[in-house]
Specification:
Layout: E1 6-9, H1 11-23, E2 29-36, E3 42-49, E4 56-60, E5 63-67, H2 69-74, E6 75-83, E7 86-93
Parallel strand pairs: 1-6, 2-5
Antiparallel strand pairs: 2-3, 4-5, 6-7
Length: 118
Amino acid sequence: MNGTPKIEISEEAYTNLLMLLSQHREYNCVKFSYVSSCCKNAKIDIILDEISKEDFIKKYNDISIVYSQEIKDKIKNIHLKYENFTFMLKCEPFDKSLSSCSKNGCSGCSGCSKGCSQ
């Protein structure tokens, strides 16, 4: 266990998340979920969801941000911004080998020749 990830959200991303949550009242939080991907890159998805008892919760002004134990264990920082009508996430793992291609972890990965772009 490494600890709680530091979460940074740009003002524009925050405003757009609040708007989405107000338009979709069936959800009460923003959830970050860990996605395993080609070459062991650390990737995070963002969705609107409902808080469950397994989630870790972090309040960010008026928004509840939730995430799993896997994010808590593997991700050091999450940066969320909104640009060109889309949300963009950048995460920094605790284990730097999760953020780059390694010869041992890339068997069958077509993206490795392109710098693990998948």
